[in-house]
């Protein structure tokens, strides 16, 4: 067998055994950023595990939701702004909460020069399972909506506590803007993430925040959260 034939045979066998990586100019596949499975498990620090979330859900008070009288989230033109201006640096680290969440949840993050604000990055959106590039397409969701906090009694809290709650990193998740808009102020009995793989994580975050702030639940909401936690395995 000639040297050329031997080389060709060796290359062919290598391709069969190792795949396209052995072809001239080829390279093994590499992983960039989290997988969909990893994104489906991503929760903020301080989120209870599934067993703890089930226990805390059982302990939540059941009560009819209050009204929205007095609830004004808008801060422009002298509006009441009952939860304070968005993205206050409540932990005093010099970086606003929105920027902290983007830096936490995105990969390949770049920041504006000399500032903590995130300039670019890529999000594997846990709510949809889709990849989103471009910070302008990403919003920060309050997993327990601020309107739901108000209905649960936040209207009687001191203003400082409402501001802290609105900026609590344990309740904030970076998601695709259009899915955040679709959710609005709806609760789990009315809306769940379109990506069913995130149901468990979403319920864990939701229950954890309600427990932290001693917010009540309703029977339909509890049933929806029970179903979501049942997917945790």
Number of DSSP strand runs: 5
State the helicity in percent bands.
Answer: 25-40%
User: How confident is the prediction overall: mean pLDDT?
Assistant: 87
Distance between the termini: 59 Å
**What is the percentage of strand-forming residues?**
5-15%
Give the spatial strand order of the biggest sheet.
1-2-3
- Broad shape: globular
Strand and helix order:
HHHHEEEEHHEHHH
Summarize the main sheet. Answer: 3 strands, antiparallel
User: How many domain regions?
Assistant: 2
What is the tally of helical segments? 9
Runs in which pLDDT lies below 50 for 5 or more consecutive residues are 1-31
Radius of gyration: 23 Å
| Class from secondary-structure proportions | alpha+beta
Q: What does it look like?
A:
The chain is an alpha+beta fold and 233 residues long. It has two domains: 1-30; 34-66 and 99-144 and 167-232, no CATH class. It is 36% helix and 11% strand. It is built from nine helices and five strands. A three-stranded antiparallel β-sheet has the order 1-2-3. Strands 4-5 form a two-stranded antiparallel sheet. Helix 3 (50-59) packs across helix 8. The longest helix has 16 residues, at 3-18. The protein starts with a helix and ends with a helix. Residues 1-31 have low confidence and may be disordered.
